[in-house]
């Protein structure tokens, strides 16, 4: 039996794929998820992929007594903390809910970890901490900019809280700054399940291709980029998931009981919105209906990751191509349409 890892938000998009990566690497994941933004069908998908049930607590993670009892019952060795609200627009309307949920649960979790002597924490952060960088790619040393959204601020403050706790207490932690996760497990048993109209580009593309949306609106083509559309670093969600396993291994093996570090998780490559549309058309074999609309407020012009540090210290880098990610996202969308 491998080390047991608590995955908060383990039924979510990145969380569920990380559960697969953990199990495949010999760890024993335990899920804690309140299903406020995920579906119980994810557990069925996980069972199909892994051939076994993953223990799951359908509860809020902001519960100190519950956390302590899970830690003890399962003899948890490390925690990957995904559970958080993540809608940028909503965060501006409901700041207190975001600060309370995202930071409250982090504080409760670390309190419970310290009480039970658990020392390995992996935190879901975001490339949003870099804001609109002056010169991409961004390294982990690139100055953090004032957050453009409440959601982004919960990630920045979350990183700072963890850093301060690690300096004072025996806690080893790593913040992983995600770029743009896309795709799905190649089995199409799990994938992204956006509720309502998707905010993110790839689910909007696949829903448009499936006929659920009439047409994609590209938010602006007058940016100072080669084709005028914004540039991001899209990363296959399974590559991202595997990085969590590498980060956990790194933390667990690290001698410094006060370890705190940050890592970029991206492909290291920037692609524009138009490039994504073109690549998707090649993957699906059909033209995608789209039109150019106005810019979306708050969008970063261009950002992609320098991944040297992750590669050097975590021994991790992406293995899947953008086309594979789009093909997997498309297979998942077709599976959803058929089910
Ligand atoms: N885009 C469109 N049309 C759409 C949706 C997106 O043109 O219908 C464009 C956006 O303008 C952007 C690119 O596609 O240029 C990517 O947009 P996403 O919404 O998919 O991703 P973002 O980079 O905006 O968002 C990501 C994460 C968020 C995080 C944010 C912070 O998904 O969780 O970065 O910058 F908060």
Beta-strand residue percentage: 15-25%
Distance between the termini: 35 Å
Strand order of the largest sheet: 3-2-1-4-5-6-11
Question: Which class of secondary structure composition applies to the elements?
Answer: alpha/beta
CATH fold call of the domain at 4-184 and 234-267 and 306-318: Rossmann fold
| Proper CATH architecture of the domain at 4-184 and 234-267 and 306-318 | 3-Layer(aba) Sandwich
Query: Count of DSSP helices?
Result: 11
What are the distinct ligands in this entry?
Answer: uridine-5'-diphosphate-4-deoxy-4-fluoro-alpha-D-galactose
Order of helices and strands: EHEHEHEHHEHEEHEEEHEEHEHH
The helix fraction, in percent, is 40-55%
How many E-type strands? 13
Q: What is the CATH C-level name of the domain at 4-184 and 234-267 and 306-318?
A: Alpha Beta
What is the alpha-carbon Rg in Å?
19 Å
Q: Main β-sheet, in a few words?
A: 7 strands, parallel
* CATH homologous superfamily placement of the domain at 4-184 and 234-267 and 306-318: NAD(P)-binding Rossmann-like Domain
